[in-house]
Specification:
mainly alpha, 3 helices, 111 residues
């Protein structure tokens, strides 16, 4: 059996990479140095998620408002679904803002 990589400083000789790493939290050990999320995919999913979950929130809220406690599903269940969809829409919108900020920072670094 092989041992997992040991945590410690990893240097590739680039001062720019060292400066960038010093602003981040310390590495825990086994993650790759160049690990990044797929920003295009995140942007696509968030761009689709915001309008979808916003529409679902409005639909469930309207349905809950037009139903009563004897309906199936009940107005409480529909209210919870509206709240969950609202939270997901908010999360996707925040992710879009984070991605926008990161792209702006990357553009500034490359100037």
């Amino acid at each position: 059996m092989s041992q997992p990589p040991q945590p410690g400083p990893h240097r590739n000789g680039s001062d720019r990479d060292d400066d960038r790493r010093s602003r981040r939290r310390p590495r825990s050990g086994t993650e790759p140095l160049t690990a990044r999320s797929d920003i295009r995919l995140r942007t696509l999913l968030s761009s689709i998620g915001v309008p979808f979950f916003a529409a679902a929130t409005a639909l469930f809220a309207w349905w809950a408002a037009s139903s009563d406690s004897r309906s199936t599903p009940s107005d409480r269940v529909l209210t919870v679904l509206a709240a969950v969809c609202g939270a997901l829409a908010l999360g996707a919108a925040i992710d879009l803002l984070v991605l926008r900020r990161r792209r702006a920072q990357e553009r500034e670094r490359h100037r």
